[in-house]
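Case study 2.
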Amino acid sequence: MPRLTRLTPDTAVGTSRDLLADLVSRHGQIGDMVSTMAHSPAVLGGYLQLSRAMGRAKLDRRISERISIAVQALQGCRLCLDSHVNAARAMGVDEEEIERARAGTSADPAIAAIIALALQIYREPTSISDEQVVALREYGYSDRAIADVVGVVALNILTGAFNLLAGLTPESDSSV
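Prediction:
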């Protein structure tokens, strides 16, 4: 059961009301996470900006979805995990690779290496080595794509932690 209430453009105030009204006018509806984030205009605005920015990331979406699956499997947000698994499936990622992503790896050594980096960013960023970054470049990742991993992890930490705090689950969500 959700711990925080959903807000609408009619019940939100100030900046949150404006942000929700804009989202409703552009998309028709908003999901539980966004409507609940509206309690904090700073969190909602930050989420929307980071989400838009990561939409322009250089990292391949099939890879970023696998990173998201690995992070959410650790963080424990079922709502986020389900969302990223469904997105990966829609992009043609097969079930074996989705299961590998849940375990924090991939059959492809280049993808396994970037997922490993993401999990280190999540768990212990001080353990990242120069050799890892060199190896990622040797796999063909640009500095921009490597840097994008931080954004993917940060966005997952934000959404997963928020959903866990708010008590949002797949059963309580109407649309994220």
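The first helix runs from residue 14 to 27.
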